[in-house]
Amino acid sequence: MKKLFFLVLFLISISNLNAQDVIRGHHGFYLSMGIGPVFGKISDDLGTYIMDMSGTGAVFDFKIGGAIKENLILHATLISNSLVGPTITTSDNSSIKANDNLNVGEAMLGAGITYYVMPQNILLSGTLGLGNFSITDNTNSANNVSTKTGFSMQLKVGKEWKVSKKWGLGAAITYGKTHLTNEPGGGVVEKMDSNRFGILFNASLN
Question: What is the CATH number of domain 2-205?
Answer without folding.
Answer: 2.40.160.20
